[in-house]
Amino acid sequence: MLFYRDAVSRRDKGGKSVSRGIRVKRFLWVAVVVWLAVGVWPAIAQEKVPLTFGDYPYGYGANALVSYSALYEGIVKPEGVDLNIMHAPIDAAERLMMAGQRDLGVMAFLAYFTARAKGLPLVALAVEQRLQPTEPSVPPGNALYVRAAAGIDNPKKLEGKKIGMPLLRSASSLYTQAIFRDRFGVDLSKITWVDKPPPILYQLLQSGEIDAANLYGEPSYRAFRDPSLKVLFVTANMWGSWTGTNTITTLIVAKKSTVEKYPRALKSVLSALQKSRDYGLQHTDQVLEIGAKKLGFDKEHLKQGVGGNYFAFEVSPQDRESLKLLLKYAVDLKMIDKELDLATLFANLGEPAR
């Protein structure tokens, strides 16, 4: 009887009997829940999403150094993401993205259009780089150069000539061909295109083996100071004044499966890219010093090119209008074989990729 009374002697506030055995079980459950909350859940919350980021090292340019160095050096890190940055030459980096070997990375807009026209499961997240108009006294980020003694003062005079073009699926290729054909009436069938990286094209132009070359980044800075060469036109200045649109060159692109699985992680990467750019703009000398040592260039030489490009890591309404025109030219110049719907080309990281 005493045992029975011990077991049910207390009542809860509602008047119902509660055994000590039940109270002990409740205590144990509470203890387990607290232990999980304090010990296990934080460990789960701290687990980082592993992502691979395909890039080409600095893209030859001072503004790429400014924008990426803080990320490369670990000064800025994406929150909640274990980001593995994997460098490769430009064409190789784009092929690896097309093959699905990177979660996200950098692609020229024309390479991306080509991939989507082929039905590859990629989707753009943001504009990476816009070329900026420059003053005549400032080394341009991207320009067409000719030999100073050749007497070429108009692209029309390049018919029948050899022109260096880094990657025929590059942004520079589309801009140059569109400007040649529709701004200056050049017969593109009379041009011989020479596809080489910018440093090699600079050497070929110096030696007279080619008659003109599109150069960007550090080779453009060298060519600008070379008395044997001259600028025929600055790409951003010519395109912007002619069309009134942004001169976009590259995009941040991701696999659709990565967008669907890790949208928050991708947002974090874009945020880190913007913070890296902002850090570089605030600590320009520091990041250029780091990059100059790695690339074997003089810091002051690189510093002359700062401002020629802007790394946006976002997509603005003006960018979308610019891309509409670029899509039109990509089809018109037969660089891609089908029209694409711009509305499907950029992911909304709050919605499934289309």
Written overview of the protein:
The structure is a single chain. The chain is an alpha/beta fold and 354 residues long. It has two domains: 44 residues; 306 residues, Periplasmic binding protein-like II (D-Maltodextrin-Binding Protein, domain 2, 3-Layer(aba) Sandwich). It has 14 helices and eleven strands. Strands 2-1-3-10-4-11 form a six-stranded mixed beta sheet, sandwiched between helices. Strands 7-6-8-5-9 form a five-stranded mixed beta sheet, sandwiched between helices. Helix 3 links the parallel strand 1 and strand 2. Helix 3 packs across helix 11, helix 3 crosses helix 12 and helix 6 packs across helix 9. The longest helix has 26 residues. The N terminus is likely disordered.
Features:
354 residues; alpha/beta; D-Maltodextrin-Binding Protein, domain 2; 2 domains; six-stranded mixed sheet; five-stranded mixed sheet; 14 helices; globular; disordered N terminus
Question: How is the secondary structure organized here?
Answer:
Blueprint: H1 2-8, H2 20-45, E1 49-55, H3 62-72, E2 81-87, H4 90-98, E3 104-108, H5 109-117, E4 122-131, E5 142-147, E6 162-164, H6 171-184, E7 192-194, H7 198-207, E8 212-216, H8 218-225, E9 229-234, H9 235-243, E10 247-255, H10 256-261, H11 263-282, H12 284-295, H13 299-303, E11 309-314, H14 317-332
Parallel strand pairs: 1-2, 1-3, 6-7, 6-8
Antiparallel strand pairs: 3-10, 4-10, 4-11, 5-8, 5-9
